[in-house]
Amino acid sequence: MSSVEQTSSVQPDWVTRLAHSRIGIIVLSALESTVLPVPLEAILIPVMVARPTRALQIGLAALIGCVLGGLVFYSLGALLADPVVKPALEWFGATQDFIDITDRLQDGSLFLAVFVIAISPAPMQLATLGAGVVGASPLIFVAALIASRGIRYLGLSLLAKTFGPRLNGMSLPPWAVAVSIVVFIALGVLIF
Asked: Long-range CB contacts (< 8 A, 24+ apart) of 109-116?
């Protein structure tokens, strides 16, 4: 059994079905950029490796979903900052983080701030809400999302298209997966 089949076998059937349709990828990506706290790459990589000829379509679908989700949160920030966004941030204890991000968005570095947050593994929800709250240019906001997430998703597509056929037949021993998880958690703790 290949590593892709092993990964798919531990996912619920509805996740597998969603991940194998472009609309499903768009929906999952929109959810990931708004409310779903799971990195989309955990689903994208196995699907792209399993279907390297469709990797570009999958990456584009993820990019479209991300931009749509980002625009939803941008609009939420622009239209409902006081009645919804600010009380929710207080409830989650994220008010100071939000203030820090909105300060960066207002000082003329909107593109760079959104780009850096969206290309990194950090959740981008505060940046998308903040861009709406401060009334940032929607065109610059969307351009930053397309550039940053385009690099992430289309870069994965290129890697899957190039190396997917070779990876498809590989199988990782369980200890290698466990070591990888520990290393990624340790890196995450050190970085953040």
From this structure: 110/136, 110/137, 110/140, 110/141, 110/144, 111/140, 111/143, 111/144, 112/144, 113/144, 114/140, 114/141, 114/144, 114/145, 114/148, 115/144, 115/147, 115/148, 116/148
CA distances from 190 to 5, 105, 183, 186 (A): 32, 26, 11, 6
**Which residues span the domain enclosing 83?**
3-191
Number of domains composing the chain: 1
pLDDT tens string, the chain, 192 residues long: the values are 444 444 445 556 765 676 678 999 999 999 999 988 778 888 888 888 888 899 999 999 999 999 999 999 999 999 998 888 888 888 888 778 778 777 777 767 889 989 998 988 777 888 898 889 888 899 999 999 999 999 999 999 999 998 887 777 767 677 766 776 677 676 666 655
Looking up tokens 């992430």 gives 152
